[in-house]
Every structure is written in structure tokens, then in C-alpha cells.
Design a protein that fits this description.
heterotrimer; A alpha/beta; B alpha+beta; C alpha+beta; A: alpha/beta; Rossmann fold; Cytochrome-c3 Hydrogenase, Chain A, domain 2; 2 domains; two-stranded antiparallel ribbon; 15 helices; B: alpha+beta; Cytochrome-c3 Hydrogenase, chain B; 4-stranded antiparallel beta sheet; 3-stranded antiparallel beta sheet; 18 helices; 14 strands
């Protein structure tokens, strides 16, 4: 081997960054971006200045990371690759030592498994993409001959923090949608004795993924989360509440058909089935792919991909409300509601009719016995 | 004495692939391609609103994001008779092209290059020599500066020095078959980092139109993004200018960085033009990005890519283009964990079945291939033959149909490297074809698709959605649709049947299924298996460091989540479709 | 007292209703005034009734020419009675008008109050199978000029086997105060709030109206106003609901207490519940008499209170999504984390339609009950009192006297 690496020469990340040619100014700029992201979560998240973050980040040693990909589509790794765009943000990947990740690691097979086992044996950060199929002994996803559950449990044992990144790892995503043929579940269904940070989304915004990791390093603690384990800095408010199209919602200005004049005006997509009012995510704030655009910005209603079971609970995507199950594809609440109201009116009418008929019958029985005293059929008046 | 070698996980691919090999005296004797993930989306999309299904099937794959969504909406549009306006088609073409270019670049630098590039050696290189090496191979990339090369070398050193090798942990850095000089390694690592930045930028074309990436949003009947030169909330000159820049960037990166790098690497590893040949049958419906809703052979609907027509090359005859007939596609489950009602037969995709019948061991296990069934991946065949799809198939088809730019690039490369056309059917050939195609795609995007779109927009053509077939009551009671799309990894088709406004049958035949499938009932190996064990000559010098088979498998650009036959119908829905 | 002719069902005479100008006996005597030789079944039955039950009354023989019998066109008979003895002991000549109650009412005078009572009582006996034979009288002057007819009462005439009528008490209706003013106020406040919430909620679910898209469209605050109204009404509703819940536990008014929401306290309650259900299913005509709510109503309203509570909980869970930084609203949001916001919206919407269904049935049954039982249930929702027959024995109150 032509090159013999020495031991890690500098004791802290800051010094190693200096060795890597990263200036303090560049590093501060990066931390400023991080601070902005953290501050994006308005409430709860402690506000830290770029300076403080830089100091903290520089002081940490390089944590080892196991980044598993279980039953999934690799979209979350792709999103991670698209995070950021400055050279310093590139460095954030080097803040860590990602010793195992199937998509990007050099080694395969036995060598990869050895790297995994070695990292598993020591304290490390565990990042999980993908769900865990539990049905039929886990045959629906195996890695190195082991089931996803076995792989996850082995990696979780010595993990100091566990991040479930992406809808699959959070709740199972598309493969866990009805009828969930492989029995796919999220990480927190397997790891129950420790908190799991749920970085939700299908996929999550790349910057949010990397910022969650950076949060661990900068704050030396897991981020504050909401009731579903999602970091507040990215999931503390709904898309609806920070949507630039919100004024159009409040004004009653809605897109009625795709590509209509209202759509070109950027009016609200509520009537097109936008799930922004039900979805906690910072998409309108951070936006996607270097702040290029975001789903509603590009004219498509939000499909709610940061919410659990959105493939079941948020569909059909182009309707305001979910369909009522058992009433076919067109079983909208509005139609069924009016149907029920109509049926009630009809039932009431029938009941009223039956009541009237019954009483009329009673009267008829009386009249069947004509009595002269009442003038019913006086004798002699009939010719 | 045959030695058993297992490569699992096979990394730097999308999804989970296991390769089992029996090797003998440094050569591969037998090989099995085993897909170890199944998600069963076939049941999940059944009964759903067809307008929603793109979002489900898009999640088949996050690497080839967009392509399944576009294939899905095209198939649904074909079924219900929706007719997206020309501008919407051009937008989809641009999204497909940007995805394909990004995908090829990611594949070459981040998934494939480490098979040839020794990162550890890069730390010892002289940055000036790296700059000089780049100049020699004709790379005029703006990143080839002394400062950049020095900075990258220092970065690599810092990582190695730290003792924490991160993603390079466990790499085969002392394998004898890393043949590049250290300065080439350094240049490649620098370009590895540049490519990361490039792909972030390039993918934004999809973000403008689809709102995010991965998994942008699409719409049955057109696109949801409005375009209007006179509205601030629609895509207008601001975005047009940005896209123009990104496209120019991509032409520059692919032309000055990717293609020269690919040529240089396959030039050093020239013996790989004689290694890794799979069956010499090739199928494509056009150049990259070609989209057909309905039967490509008869369809009048096609994308902007009309220069190359659908066709099939068979039995190594690279000059005769056979007409493409979609009824000749059949899928076998002989080596897969499924059972067909009619036994071990080939089923056309519109009649496909996916009934799980797992016969493998309970995990953990150590060896699968003793079983006749060993994979979740079915084996598609065209007219009974295993075929290759992907860049190599498209390049050969374009060459056979006389596409000038393709011919020119291929001929130049062949002359430089001293190879013949049929040597493209090889490990290095597939990698070269991908680079060639990436260049033509970038040029077509820059010179045809995007200018056409921008010109029509200037001319006031702002319609992007066909509302006439949006409401389900405008659909026929029963409808079937199919679409073919030439995506990064090859020929993708989605097949849908719609009954009473809901999906009653869905199936996708995916590039990696064509390539990664196992043996069929005739014992014919899948292309992966054939490329490793076709002639018994594939090298495997050190079974503990299976670098050579990684090169060959990576040359196909595997995408396993796609491959597993995710979309299909159960038997009872099938009756509704066929009756 | 039963008279029958060949081929005819027996005719019987039941009780007498009087507007209290004349005694029941005199009403009966007036009704029975007919030629002795009359073979009309009603005359025969009335004659028999007088002779059998009231020997104190003189059976008057009327000359045939003094009787102008009823016809189809004029459904009453006119009979000249000479020397009819009055309450004060004097005698006078009178003309008696006797026949169908509607015809007699139309041709005689009666006070407005008595007219209602007459109708109510006539309908009551009618529903039990009797026919009210009405009687009115007019004084005859010295020159045989006939004065104004005054309505006097009616006699129950039964054909076949009508059900007996208990007239143990005075034959009239009593007004019973049931609903307190606060409850009535809450009821109508609820109506207003639910109406407001429904209208605005429907528009939030489907804002089918709204400005057209054109350049320079005015940006108003339409949806904002709708939602403001919805939220304001919702908060008001919660206050009303809480007030009601508190009063259910502290009020001394029996009809406000929580026990009114749980009707099944004994076996008899269960039996009565079954009878009420059979009544509404048109299987049985009678149902147990309740001054306040019958057991089915009690159960229904208990369910309604729960439904409204659930509607408040789901509504506020959705509302809380605006305030996820507050610990209080985080707790309120719990249902969202269990089923997801869209499912909650769907549920909230379907509950609205369910409430509409309740309202339709509620209004129908109230109108129906009032029109069948004449107890004034509808007006009671405004003025608080219901009408009950004296002597009626409600399940949930002492005998009406």
C-alpha cells in the first residue's frame, strides 16, 4: 500500500478543519446557515448564534456514523446528497465518519460487513433510512443474509442517538400503506426503549437531514421534538401557516382547475386538494434544492409527505377530504353527507306518509258504518 | 476446487443486491443475481385513484426519481384518453433529461468510479501532475487548477490521517488491480467532489417544474406548474434564465469533465472491453428520454425525441433493426419467489401475476443459490431472449439507425481506444456508452428541447394541462394503458388497467428487471449472471476483495428497488382485466 | 246502552263533553231528542242510554214534523224542543242542532278558547274510535223566531267496539310548565350556533364560491371572515355546552339534571323504551305518556350531547394546529397524532351531516307528535308549557289534575 495514514493528527474537529484548508470565515458562514435553519423553527428551538455553533462544532471529535438503508427507495440518500451547496456544507459530511452506508461506501460484501460490525461495537450515531418488514420472518428485505430487523437491532445496541430519516424509517411509507403486504413498520416500532428522532418526509429536505445531524453535534443533545418525534426546528408549524399563498386562502381566492387563470396568479390550491393545512413541515421556509422552489410554489398541491400514513390518510391527493372508505373511489364526504341528508328526508317523508295513511285508515273504518245522525247516508235522500 | 463467494451487500447501487459466485482459479465459473428486497406495491396501488398512483410508484425508486411518475401518468393518460399539451410534454422531457444527466454523472463518479480509482493513492499524488494529467486526457474542466487539486489532496489526507476513513472504510485500497497513476486518482477524486456540486445544481431543472427533488410532483393530463411570461407566480423569464444556465453548465461538465474522465479510465482498463459481455440482444424505444404512451410501434404520441425509432437488435447483429413488438415481452418467475397459476410459463405484463411463494431460508442465511428459486426479481424476456437495455442498447440502436452525433462520438472513441463496435457489449463498453449518451442528451436538451420550449413560451403557448379528462366521469368504465420511457437505466414500461374509476391492475417492467433477473425456464441466465459467468473467463483475483465483479455489475447501474417486481395484480383482479 | 239493527254493527254511547254551559245530562237529553218511533240506530242507542243511565231525565217525545233530519249536504239535524228545562229550573223552547262536529262548529258560536278544547277533545275521542256527535242550541222567540246557535258539547257515539275513554277527571286539558327559561334559551342558542357552524363549516370544507381570477382581483378576507365566524361560534358553543354540563349537576330543576339523560333506571323504563320504539315504528299506536322526554328521546339527546362534545373536541384539535407552541394546544391536538388531520377533518364533516340528520328527524317528530297528541310540544320549546289531559297519568310526573 503506497500510503500509510497516520493517526488522526489534531485532537478536535476545528483543528482538523484548519488542516483541511477550511478558514474560520468559511466555517462561520456555514454555521450561519445552520443557525438560520435552526431559527426557522420559530418556537422551542434554542437560538444559537453562528459563533456559538462554530465554537461547539469545532470542539467535537469526529463521531462515527452507521447510516443504514433498509426497505426503501434511496430517495433519502439522494436528498442528503443534494443538501446545501457551499463547500463548507460539503464539509459537514466530513464532520462525520460515515463508516457504513450502502449507497456511497467503497467497500462491498464482507469488507462492508466488517466495517459495520466494527462501528456497531463502539458508540456511534445511527441513521436509518427505510422501513423494517416484519412479516414472514423478515424475508422481504435482507442485507448480508440478515433481515432488516436483525441489522437494525445490531446497529442500535451501542447507538448514542438514533435518527429515523424519511417516511419509510418513520412509519413505513408507501410499502406500509394498505394493505401493507410485507408488514413494514418504522424504526420506533422496533426500538422502543430509547427516543428516536423522526426526520419525516418522503424524502425530507436534504438540509433538514444534515441539520439534524449537525444539531446533535452543535448542541450535544438531541433536538426538541413534537409529539411525533419530529425536530421542532423543521416541523413546528404547518405548511399552511407559512405558505406564501395563505393570503389567497384567507381571501377565498382558489384555483378551480389546474392551469386556470387563478393558477397562473398563484392562488391557493386548497380546492385542488392541497394538504398544507394538515402537514407540518418547513417546506415554504427552507424550500428545496438550494432554495430553488417547493411543491406548492411549482403549482402542485402539497401531498402531505411529512405526515404518518399520508398515502392512506391523505388520499385522494386531489380532494379536500379523504374518501369515505367502503364507498368506492368517488366516495366523497360531501356526496355521502348529502346522500344521508336526502335519505333522512325521504325516511321522514315515508314515516309521515305511513302515519297519515294509518290515521286515514282509522277514519275510513269509522266512515264504513254510515250513521244518519251525522248525515252520512240519510235514508230517503238517495234516489 | 470451486470457491463460493458472496457479495452482499453489493454497495454503491440503489437498493439491495446479492451476488453469489462460484469461482475457480481466479475465474468466475457460476454466478447468481439475487434481489433481496420486496415491497409488494402491486396490492397497494390496486383500488386507488389512477390520478394518485404516480406518487405511489414514484417511490419505487429515489435514484431514478421522476421516471416512474412520468411513466405512470403517461400510461394513465393513454388509458383515459388524456392528451397533455405540447408544452407539458416538453417540460416532462426536460425533467427526464436533467434527471438522466444527473443520474449518469452520479453513477459514474459516486457509484462506479471507486471500482477504478484508488482514493488512498490520491493522497500521495502531486497536484501539479494531476493538472497535467487532466490536460493530457483533454479535460478542459474549469476545476482542473493547482489550488483545487492541492486542496482536494489535503482533504483526502485529512480524512485518511484522522484514522476515520468514513465512506472509504474497508475499501480495497491495496488491491493490485487499481491501475491508475496517483495523479489520475487525485484528479478523479477532485471531479468526484465537483460532480457532487454539479448534480445539486443540475437537478434543479426538475425542482422548478416539480417543486422538489427527489420525488417531484407530476399531474395526469399535463403539469401543475403554470408557465406564463407575464405572471410572477408562473414560470417566466426568471426561471428560463436559470434553467438556461444550468443546462449550459451540464453541457460543460459532461463535455469537459465526465466524457474525458470516462474515456481515460476505460482507456487504462481497456481489457474490460473483453470482459463482462452479456447476451448480444438490445432493446430500446428510442434515445434517452423517449416517451411513448401506447404501443411505441404504432403510437403517434411521442416525445420530442423522434430521431431514433423503437427497435430491437438480436443475436449480435448490430446492423439489423428488428421492429419492436410489445406482445413479445414475457416475464418468467422460474428462479423467483413467486408462483404462477399456470405453472412455470412466461406471462405478458398485462397478464402478470405476483403471488409470493418464498422457498428460501429464514434469515440469517449464508447461501441461497442451492435453491432453484433465489431472488425476488422476475426474468423478462423478449421473444424468449434475454436482452440488454440501457445506454448501451440506446447507443447501439441510434448507431444502427444512423444518428449522426452518436455515430460521430462512438466512432471517435472507438478509434481512440482501438475497439470495435461489438465490444460495447462489455463492462467498459457499457460505461463508455453511458458517457456517450450523457453527452448527446445534454446537447439535445441544450440545443433542441429547451430552445423549443422557450420559443413556444415566447410565442404565447402557455397551456400545460388537459382538463377534459380530469373528472373520473369522463373516463370509460374499463380502460387499459401502457407507456414506454427510455430512462437512465434503460427501457421502462408501465401497464395499467382502470375499472370504474379505480386502478384494477398495475405493472411496471423496469430496466433493472430486464438485467438483474435470474434464470428462466430454459435455463437461460439473466444479463448480470451472463456477464459474470457467461464464458468462464471473468476474473476474480482475490475472493475476499471482489473488485472485478463489482466493476461488471456496476457497469449496468443496478437499481434494485426498481427491479423487484413491485407492481402487479393479484389473480382475482386479473379476471376483471382480461374478461 | 247498545242498540243494533239487523245487519248493522252495534252502536254504543260513551261519555259526554260539555263546554259547561249545560250539564252533561242536558247535553245527552238534547242529543236524544227524537220521535219515539224513530228507528235510527243512534236515536235508539241514545234513548236507551237515557232510560238506562239517567232515569232522572225525562225522555221527551218529539213530534216527527218538529225534526228536520241531517243530510249529506247539511250534516246536522234540527229539532224543535218545547219546554226544555234549563239549569235554573225554568223551561224554554229551544232548537237543538245535532250532527257532525265540524258542521255544528261551523254553524254555531263558541268562544275561541272552547273551540280549541272542543277540537282537542273531539280528536282525542276520535283517535280512540268514537265519533263525537255535536250538539248546539238556539233559543226560540215568542214568534217562533230562532236565535243564534251556541255550541254546547258532544256525545261520544261508538260503532263496533271502540276503546273506553276514561273521563274520571274533568274533561279538559291542563297546562303543565316543564321547561325552564334557561333551558329554552340554551336550546335556541344551540340552534343558532349549530346553524352558524354548519354554514361556515360547509364553506370551509368546500368554498365553492369566491372571486373570479382576473387581473387586479380584489384581495378581500372572505375565507378569513368565514373562519372567524366559525371559530367565534365554536368558542361560544363550548361556553354554552359547559354551562349545560354544570347545570346538569347543580340545578335543582329536575328537567335540567343529568338523570334526564339516562332513562333506564328500572325494568319499567326498559319496557317503556320498547313501547316508545314500537310506537315510532308504527307498530303500536299508543306510547307511554311522558311530560318531559320519553326514554328514546332521553337516549337520543344523551347521544346528541356526546356527539356535540366529540364535534367540539375534533374541531378544537384541528384548531389547535395553529398553536403548536403552546402546551395546552399540544394536548388538544392529541387526536391529530392518532388518526391524522385529514381523517379528523373527514370525521368532523361527517358528524356535521349526522347532526343535520338529527335536526331533520327532530323537527319532524316534534311536529308529528304535536299534531297527533295536541300537547303543544312545539310551542313548549318557546313558552315552556305543554298541554296534558286532566286525569292523565304520565310516567315521569304525578297525575295531571
Amino acid at each position: 500500500m503506497p500510503y500509510h495514514p497516520d493517526a488522526w493528527q489534531a485532537p478536535t474537529l476545528g483543528e482538523n478543519l484548519k488542516r483541511a484548508g477550511v478558514t474560520r470565515r468559511e466555517f462561520l458562514a456555514f454555521c450561519g446557515v445552520l443557525a438560520g435553519i435552526f431559527a426557522g423553527g420559530a418556537a422551542g428551538a434554542p437560538k444559537a448564534s453562528a459563533e456559538q455553533i462554530a465554537d461547539k462544532l469545532a470542539a467535537v471529535t469526529k463521531p462515527n456514523v452507521v447510516w443504514l438503508q433498509l426497505q426503501e427507495c434511496t430517495g433519502c440518500m439522494e436528498s442528503t446528497l443534494r443538501s446545501g451547496g457551499t463547500t463548507v456544507e460539503e464539509v459537514v459530511l466530513k464532520l462525520l465518519s460515515v463508516n457504513y452506508n450502502e449507497l456511497v461506501m467503497a467497500a462491498s460484501g464482507d469488507a462492508a460487513n466488517k466495517a459495520l460490525a466494527a462501528t456497531n461495537a463502539e458508540p456511534h450515531i445511527l441513521v436509518v433510512n427505510g422501513s423494517i418488514p416484519l412479516k414472514d420472518n423478515g424475508i422481504y428485505c435482507t442485507i448480508g443474509g440478515e433481515s432488516a430487523e436483525q441489522v437494525l437491532r445490531a446497529s442500535a445496541e451501542n447507538a448514542t442517538a438514533i435518527l429515523a430519516v424519511g417516511a419509510c424509517a418513520v412509519w413505513g411509507s408507501v410499502q406500509a400503506s394498505r394493505p401493507n403486504p410485507t408488514g413494514a413498520v418504522g424504526v420506533d416500532e422496533i426500538i422502543r426503549d430509547r427516543p428516536v428522532i423522526n426526520v419525516a418526509g418522503c424524502p425530507p429536505i436534504g438540509e433538514v437531514i444534515t441539520a439534524t445531524v449537525a444539531y446533535l453535534l452543535a448542541h450535544d443533545d438531541v433536538p426538541q421534538t413534537d409529539a411525533e418525534g419530529r425536530p421542532l426546528f423543521a416541523y413546528d408549524q404547518r405548511i399552511h401557516d407559512s405558505c406564501p399563498r395563505r393570503p389567497h386562502f384567507d381571501a377565498g381566492q382558489y384555483v378551480r382547475t389546474f392551469d386556470d387563470e387563478a393558477a397562473r396568479n398563484g392562488w391557493c390550491l386548497y380546492e385542488m386538494g392541497c394538504k398544507g393545512p394538515s402537514t407540518f413541515s418547513a417546506c415554504p421556509i427552507f424550500q428545496w434544492n438550494l432554495h430553488t422552489s417547493w411543491p406548492i410554489g411549482a403549482g402542485h398541491p402539497c401531498i402531505g409527505c411529512t405526515e404518518r400514513h399520508f398515502f392512506d390518510r391523505f388520499t385522494p391527493f386531489y380532494r379536500v377530504l379523504p374518501n369515505v372508505r367502503g364507498f368506492g373511489v368517488e366516495g366523497t364526504a360531501e356526496k355521502i353527507g348529502w346522500g344521508l341528508v336526502g335519505a333522512t328526508v325521504a325516511g321522514v317523508a315515508i314515516h309521515a306518509g305511513a302515519t297519515a295513511v294509518r290515521h286515514a285508515t282509522a277514519r275510513k273504518t269509522e266512515a264504513a258504518e254510515p250513521l244518519n245522525a251525522f248525515g252520512d247516508d240519510p235514508a230517503g235522500t238517495e234516489e | 476446487m470451486a470457491e463460493r463467494v458472496v457479495i452482499d451487500p453489493l454497495t454503491r447501487i440503489e437498493g439491495h443486491l446479492r451476488i453469489e459466485i462460484e469461482s475457480d482459479a481466479g475465474k468466475i465459473a457460476r454466478a447468481w443475481s439475487e434481489t433481496t428486497q420486496f415491497r409488494g406495491l402491486e396490492e397497494i396501488v390496486t383500488g386507488r385513484d389512477p390520478r394518485d398512483v404516480w406518487a405511489f410508484v414514484q417511490r419505487i425508486c429515489g435514484v431514478c426519481t421522476s421516471v416512474h411518475a412520468i411513466a405512470s401518468i403517461s400510461a394513465v393518460e393513454n388509458a383515459i384518453g388524456s392528451n397533455p399539451p405540447p408544452q407539458a410534454r416538453l417540460i416532462r422531457d426536460m425533467v427526464l433529461a436533467s434527471q438522466e444527466i444527473q443520474d449518469h454523472v452520479i453513477h459514474f463518479y459516486h457509484l462506479h468510479a471507486l471500482d477504478f480509482v484508488n482514493v488512498a493513492a490520491a493522497a500521495t499524488a502531486d497536484p501539479a501532475a494531476a493538472v497535467e494529467f487532466a490536460r493530457q486526457i483533454g479535460s478542459t474542466w474549469k476545476g482542473n487548477t493547482l489550488e483545487r487539486m492541492t486542496a482536494v489532496r489535503d482533504t483526502v489526507r485529512a480524512i485518511l490521517d484522522s484514522g476515520q476513513l468514513s465512506i472509504f472504510t474497508g475499501g480495497y485500497w491495496d488491491h493490485p488491480d487499481y491501475r491508475l497513476p496517483p495523479e489520475a486518482d487525485l484528479m478523479a477524486v477532485a471531479h468526484y467532489l465537483d460532480a457532487l456540486e454539479f448534480q445539486r445544481s443540475m437537478i434543479r431543472v426538475g425542482t422548478v417544474f416539480g417543486g422538489k427533488n427527489p420525488h417531484p410532483n407530476f399531474l395526469v393530463g399535463g403539469m401543475a406548474c403554470t408557465i406564463d411570461p407575464n405572471h410572477s407566480e408562473s414560470i417566466n423569464q426568471v426561471q428560463i434564465d436559470q434553467i438556461q444556465d444550468w443546462i449550459a453548465e451540464s453541457v460543460e461538465f459532461v463535455g469537459t469533465c465526465y466524457v474525458p474522465d470516462a474515456l481515460a479510465i476505460v482507456g487504462v482498463y481497456k481489457d474490460y472491453f473483453d470482459i463482462g459481455a452479456a447476451q448480444p440482444n438490445f432493446l430500446a424505444v428510442g434515445m434517452a428520454g423517449a416517451t411513448f404512451a401506447g404501443d411505441p410501434a404504432t403510437s403517434t404520441l411521442s416525445s420530442a425525441h423522434t430521431a431514433v425509432r423503437p427497435g430491437v437488435l438480436l443475436d449480435g447483429d448490430l446492423a439489423t433493426v428488428h421492429p419492436f413488438d410489445l406482445t413479445k415481452i414475457a416475464e418468467w418467475a422460474s428462479s423467483a419467489w413467486y408462483s404462477y397459476e399456470d405453472g412455470d410459463v412466461g406471462l405478458t405484463p398485462d397478464r402478470g401475476e405476483t403471488t409470493v411463494a418464498y422457498t428460501g431460508p429464514t434469515p440469517p442465511y449464508t447461501w441461497l443459490a442451492d435453491n432453484p428459486e433465489y431472488t425476488w426479481c422476475k426474468a423478462p424476456r423478449y421473444d424468449g431472449k434475454a436482452v440488454q437495455v440501457g445506454p448501451v442498447a440506446r447507443v447501439l440502436l441510434a448507431y444502427a439507425q444512423g444518428h449522426e452525433r452518436t455515430k460521430q462520438i462512438v466512432d471517435d472513441a472507438a478509434a481512440t481506444l482501438g475497439i470495435s463496435l461489438d465490444q460495447l457489449n462489455s463492462t467498459a463498453g457499457r460505461t463508455l456508452a453511458r458517457a456517450v449518451e450523457c453527452l448527446t442528451s445534454a446537447e439535445i436538451l441544450a440545443n433542441e428541447t429547451f430552445p423549443t420550449f422557450a420559443k413556444k413560451l415566447r410565442g404565447g403557448d402557455i397551456e400545460v394541462f388537459d382538463a377534459s379528462r380530469w373528472a373520473p366521469d369522463s373516463w370509460p368504465d374499463h380502460a387499459t394503458g401502457v407507456s414506454f420511457v427510455e430512462v437512465a437505466r434503460g427501457n421502462l414500461s408501465h401497464w395499467v388497467a382502470i375499472d370504474g374509476g379505480a386502478v384494477s391492475h398495475y405493472q411496471a417492467v423496469v430496466p433493472t428487471t430486464w438485467l438483474a433477473g435470474g434464470r428462466d425456464a430454459q435455463g437461460q441466465q439473466g444479463p448480470y449472471e451472463e456477464s459474470l459467468a457467461g464464458n468462464g473467463l471473468h476474473p476474480l483475483a482475490d475472493p475476499s476483495q471482489p473488485l472485478e465483479p463489482l466493476r461488471t455489475i456496476h457497469s449496468f447501474d443496478p437499481c434494485m428497488s426498481c427491479a423487484v417486481h413491485v407492481l402487479d395484480s393479484s389473480a382475482e383482479e386479473l379476471e376483471a382485466v382480461t374478461s | 246502552m247498545t242498540a243494533a239493527l239487523a245487519g248493522q254493527a252495534p252502536v254504543s254511547i260513551g261519555g259526554v263533553f260539555t263546554v259547561r254551559e249545560l250539564s252533561e245530562g242536558r247535553i245527552l237529553a238534547l242529543a236524544a231528542a227524537a220521535p219515539a218511533a224513530s228507528t235510527d240506530v243512534v236515536d235508539v242507542a241514545l234513548g236507551a242510554a237515557i232510560r238506562g243511565d239517567r232515569p232522572d231525565l225525562e225522555a221527551r217525545d218529539i213530534a216527527a214534523e218538529d225534526v228536520d233530519p241531517a243530510t249529506r249536504e247539511r250534516r246536522y239535524a234540527l229539532t224543535m224542543i218545547r219546554g226544555f228545562s234549563l239549569e235554573d229550573g225554568s223551561t224554554a223552547d229551544v232548537v237543538a242542532m245535532r250532527g257532525s262536529i265540524e258542521a255544528v262548529l261551523a254553524n254555531s258560536t263558541v268562544s275561541r278558547k272552547d273551540r280549541g278544547l272542543v277540537r282537542r277533545n273531539a280528536a282525542w275521542v276520535g283517535r280512540r274510535g268514537w265519533r263525537p256527535l255535536a250538539v248546539a242550541t238556539a233559543p226560540v222567540g215568542p214568534n217562533d223566531e230562532v236565535g243564534e246557535f251556541r255550541f254546547q258539547g258532544f256525545v261520544d257515539v261508538g260503532v263496533g267496539r271502540p276503546r273506553p275513554i276514561d273521563r274520571s277527571g274533568p274533561s279538559t286539558w291542563a297546562r303543565v310548565e316543564v321547561w325552564s327559561a334557561s333551558l329554552r334559551f340554551q336550546h335556541w342558542l344551540n340552534v343558532a350556533i349549530v346553524f352558524t357552524l354548519s354554514c361556515t363549516g360547509y364553506l370551509i370544507m368546500d368554498p365553492f364560491f369566491g372571486p373570479e381570477a382576473h387581473a387586479g382581483a380584489q384581495t378581500g378576507y372572505l375565507m378569513g371572515v368565514i373562519r372567524f365566524i366559525h371559530f367565534t361560534a365554536a368558542f361560544t358553543w363550548v361556553v354554552v355546552g359547559l354551562t349545560r354540563v354544570v347545570s346538569a349537576f347543580v340545578s335543582r330543576d329536575r328537567h335540567l339534571r343529568w338523570t334526564e339523560w339516562w332513562p333506564i333506571k328500572s325494568k319499567r323504563d326498559l319496557r317503556n323504551l320498547g313501547r316508545v320504539i314500537q310506537h315510532y315504528a308504527l307498530i303500536k299506536e299508543d306510547s307511554p305518556l311522558y311530560v318531559a322526554h320519553n326514554p328514546l328521546q332521553q337516549l337520543t339527546y344523551a347521544a346528541l350531547y356526546c356527539a356535540c362534545g366529540v364535534q367540539m373536541i375534533t374541531g378544537f384539535a384541528l384548531y389547535s394546529l395553529y398553536h403548536q407552541s403552546s402546551p395546552f394546544w399540544q394536548v388538544v391536538a392529541t387526536p391529530v397524532h392518532i388518526v391524522g388531520a385529514p381523517s379528523l377533518r373527514l370525521f368532523h364533516t361527517m358528524m356535521m351531516f349526522a347532526l343535520w340528520m338529527f335536526v331533520i328527524i327532530h323537527v319532524y317528530l316534534a311536529v308529528r307528535a304535536d299534531s297527533l297528541e295536541r300537547h303543544g310540544g312545539i310551542s313548549s320549546m318557546i313558552n315552556g308549557g305543554v298541554w296534558l289531559r286532566r286525569g292523565a297519568k304520565p310516567v315521569d310526573a304525578p297525575e295531571i289534575g
